[in-house]
Fold this protein.
Amino acid sequence: MNSGRSKHSAQARHFKPFISVCFIIFTLFTLVFLKMEERRMSYAVLKLTREFKKVAELKKQKEIQLVKLSRPQFVENIAKGKLTLKRATDKQIIHLSTIVATK
């Protein structure tokens, strides 16, 4: 019975260095993979940051364009020039009085 244990412990002693080397290699591969993943994620964040800045700038330009196009003077000029409309006279304006509901 003792010889069976000694054979088992001798085999385990032979595998311990192999298992240790495998563990070290696995750990190193894991570290390399994590570093690569970190680099990939940082590039993705950089790309999204640049894209966000472009979209924010485009939004700002569109808002400025909207403000320019919705100015009353601009709308009036378009109405007179392209649509051949005229400014309403006082006789054409209908004034509606507000009705206050009482309880």
